[in-house]
Amino acid sequence: MLGSVSVTTNAAVGTVKALLARGGLHPHFQPIADLAEGHSAAHEALIRTPAGCPWRSPDELFAAAREEDCVVALEIECVRLALRAWMGLRPAGRLFVNLSAQALVTALAQADLNLLLTLTEEAHLSASGVVIELTEHERVRDIAALEAAVARLRRHKVQIALDDFGDGRSSLRLWSELKPEFVKIDRYFVHQLPQHPEKLQTLRALIQIAQVFGSTLIAEGIETEDELHLVRDLGIRLGQGWLLGRPAPTPVSRAQAAALAVIERKDLAVFPERRRAAHRRAAVPQVLREIPPVTPAQSNDELLQRFSTDETAHAIAIVDEAQRPLGLVSRTRFVTQYAKPYFKELYGRQSCTLSANLSPRLLDLTADIDTLTAVLTSEDQRYLSEGVIIVEHGRYRGLGAGEDLVRAVTEARIEAARHANPLTLLPGNIPITQHIERLLEAGREFVACYFDLNQFKPFNDLYGYWRGDEMILLAARAITHHADPRRDFVGHVGGDDFVVLFQSDDWEARSQQALAHFNAAAVGLYDEAERLAGGVMAEDRHGNLRFHPLTTLSVGAVKITEAAPNLRPEDVANAAARAKRQAKALGGGLHVDTLRPPHPSPSGQALSAN
């Protein structure tokens, strides 16, 4: 990576070759920080152009060098200047210098780079402190030559880094074959990371790949505190960006104050959650039944024989010579029709299309849960008895039974609700449990708050589910509005139950504000008569008619300290649920409880609405 800034020189230059001959390029150094401790683990050398230079940006400078056919000479000069300045300054940590893969191979072939490394060794600068950062590695054509060049560097104990990995051009194969000591993640995956959960998933995948290949990741482009917080808590050890430190003529020993404040924070970042991702997953393969089809040439008698020999076939498809579906014959409908008087005599030898539904429902093999749901809710309900034909590129692949479709949709909805509640889209059971695990493993102090609605059932019974959903959405808005999204994790267990894992010091004030917000707004969801009466007449859980006050919000809180030993997520969940029940028994408001010592219970217990 290169940059441009004014460095005084006496005369302007007209060509890159003249600039190289006259001098004037000047190295700056940008820190690569240790995100766990805050010190500078390394610096990257970035070249600067002099005042009066016609090329104000690195792209312009290197474009001009390509036109003059002196790119390799320019890259080698940048490395030479960086090494010379570094040897004079002798800071701690490694030095990253940029070279394109082509320049590396060429420079080693011409012994230029060997000469530079020999000079560093003579100056008692260990070459093991030098990292060659490969740029433009996506253009490599001769991987064997590059591997040979890298092997020669490693004999000097020089390490290798891949730059801008993940920019759409980088090569996973190159990562696998070179096994670089460092891989720099392209800034795209860090930019606005808190707003893009899919980027977080990509970073997690890169972390796993790095573990396989034994590489250390460096997150580039860290510019905001929230980005740094997330990258730190993902476990990426090294980072680079303007928040950590800007390029300067002199290396620095530590990250900037704003970055250190984030690094030293004890609270964990709240990972952004993907919303309803499970609905886009292909669902048809799990309901596919590979039942051989028949052709129109087969008779009704032959079709009866097929049904008799294959008792698992709920239906049989009719296809043409190209395996394109023509119709679908339901077992139940066909057997009933065949059993009618004189059917065998009149129609037994006729084509099996006589008993077929010639406009069956087709499903593509790649269809997702939303598509299956559309089938279940369509006006044509024949799929319940006949099922559907599953196709791939328009050709027959198999059948799907009605009961299989219903089961697949039901299971997918249940699983999706465990990850994200379908009404509020807030994280569900699994993400809540995972976040509790992260907090416990890190030994962080936090407060688990369990929010629940009082007198919600009478409201729901009186006004119906649509109005009930409005009440639940109101609770979600009130709770999330008063939580800090950077520090406090808000989850929806189910129904009218919510969980907030507070790391905010003012968690109690936030909880009280959420209660007041909801209680004031919930009155507006009642009709005027109930508002004036202050509640509703409705049956209680025992079937007795009685007066129920207006719906309010209550919360049970349990504090978790750093000293809490051997806690499990289910211990926290159970304690929060107990505190919630106490709050409801007291008629609402906030009830704070202490966490009781853990006792043996079945592992893996999840949060549940009760």
Helices and strands, with pairings:
Layout: H1 16-22, E1 26-34, E2 40-48, H2 58-67, H3 71-89, E3 94-100, H4 101-109, H5 112-122, E4 130-135, H6 143-155, E5 159-165, H7 172-178, E6 182-185, H8 197-213, E7 216-219, H9 225-234, E8 238-239, H10 257-263, H11 300-309, E9 315-319, E10 325-330, H12 331-338, H13 343-347, E11 362-364, H14 369-376, H15 383-386, E12 388-392, E13 395-400, H16 402-419, H17 429-441, E14 446-454, H18 456-463, H19 465-481, E15 489-494, E16 497-502, H20 507-522, H21 528-533, E17 535-539, E18 545-549, E19 552-560, H22 569-585, E20 589-594
Parallel strand pairs: 2-3, 3-4, 4-5, 5-6, 6-7, 7-8, 11-12, 19-20
Antiparallel strand pairs: 1-2, 1-8, 9-10, 12-13, 14-16, 14-19, 15-16, 17-18
Helix pairs in contact: 3-4, 3-5, 4-6, 9-10, 14-16, 18-19, 19-20
